[in-house]
Amino acid sequence: MPANITAITVTADGASGASGADYVGGNGGEVKAIVPVTSEQTLYVVVGGEGGVRTGENSGAGGFNGDGNGGLANGYSGSGGYGGGGASDVRMQSTEP
């Protein structure tokens, strides 16, 4: 971080949930914040991944960076759920995440 910068504005968008032939996944959330920083800090941007598509009775995996897997198939639908999208964030730490 350059020495004369004391704060940054961060806008982070989460990834969308999975979409398939019969379903359109929801959009990821968005957050905007002013974050204080110092010249000694290194910032790491982590971008969330889109949720996974189901395959038959198997649920889709959650997207990269911490979202949920789709639900399991049940007696009503026989189909697994789609995975949710992962989070995007900025990390301030001394070592790479």
Features:
97 residues, mainly beta, two-stranded antiparallel sheet, elongated
Structure write-up:
The chain has one domain. It is elongated and about 60 Å long. 0% of the residues lie in helices and 23% in strands. It has no helices and four strands. With 97 residues, the protein is an all-beta fold.
What fraction of residues sit in β-strands? 15-25%
What's the total number of strands? 4
The biggest sheet amounts to:
2 strands, antiparallel
End-to-end Cα distance: 17 Å
Mean pLDDT: 85
Q: Which regions contain 5 or more consecutive residues with pLDDT less than 50?
A: none
Judged by helices, strands and strand pairing, the structural class is mainly beta
Coarse shape: elongated
- Computed Rg: 18 Å
State the domain count.
Answer: 1
Q: Taking strands numbered 1, 2, ... along the chain, how are they ordered across the largest sheet?
A: 1-2
SSE layout:
Layout: E1 7-13, E2 30-36, E3 43-46, E4 89-92
Antiparallel strand pairs: 1-2, 3-4
